[in-house]
Amino acid sequence: MMTEFLQPPFMQRALLAAVLVGVIAPAVGIYLVQRRQALMGDGIGHIAMTGVGLGFLLSTSPVWMATAVAVVGSVIMELVRWYGRTRGDIALAMLFYGGMAGGVLLINLSDTGSNANLTSYLFGSLSTVSSEDITAICVLAAFVLLVTLGLRRQLFAVSQDEEFARVTGLPVRALNLLIAVTAAVTVTVAMRVVGLLLVSALMVVPVAAAQQISKSFKVTFVLSVVIGTAVTLAGTVTSYYQDVPPGATIVLLAIGVFVALTLLAAPLAARRARRGESGSAQCTLEGAAPEATTPEAPAAHPATDDVRV
Fold first, then answer.
1. pTM higher than the cut 0.85
2. Which CATH architecture has domain 4-264?
3. What is the largest CA-CA distance in the chain?
């Protein structure tokens, strides 16, 4: 049967988690790409590892504990960026490495921790997504969607040009903190499906793929969510049938989509360029005609919310 993968309860939970992750990861990632912080998710993933270790050590939910630690870490990252006297990249690197080291140590100190548990959080695992995890993922995903959709205009303005956003009266620092916190929540939501080490790719690659064929923020947002959802579902099903890690499968599929759209976009861009050149030549010929007594006003360029970086 084509739908036999829907029968096991663990696959039903895994597919639901995959859909939610496929939607929210690019929805947050588009703002990180705009801010040129594409690797922020990777750093938060390292920090969240300490939360996972604390969850095992204290016999509480690793997802909720990882969320708390990741949120605190993301706030510290922003504070270091604003006020740190040490070079920002050095301070953040220490935070990242300390988070990963702390997580490994705490997991090994806990009674329930093991290498298998560590691997499932680092690279994702279908069979370990529990009903409790699904509840946490649904709640956190709802928060992420509420922020990324409800405040999309303000978040776009801050991500595009902080100085302009400040002049218009937007609370720039509060919005920057909100983006960082939302990214932290997204990382902890995605870690059960993709894994902490690969979650950043799912936040960035679908956005980069969508940018190959779109310059509009709105279209890029929708396309990246569609791509993210498609690759997470396809990767999850492939992982079930081929018994391969879901995180790696999902990321490789996303990169494949990026390569395909890049190859598709190249001839389209060349065709548009040729049309633009022919249009310019036609305008030049018309402007050189004897009847033209007044110069043409330059064509107005339409405003665009270009998301290319």
1. no
2. Orthogonal Bundle (1.10)
3. 90
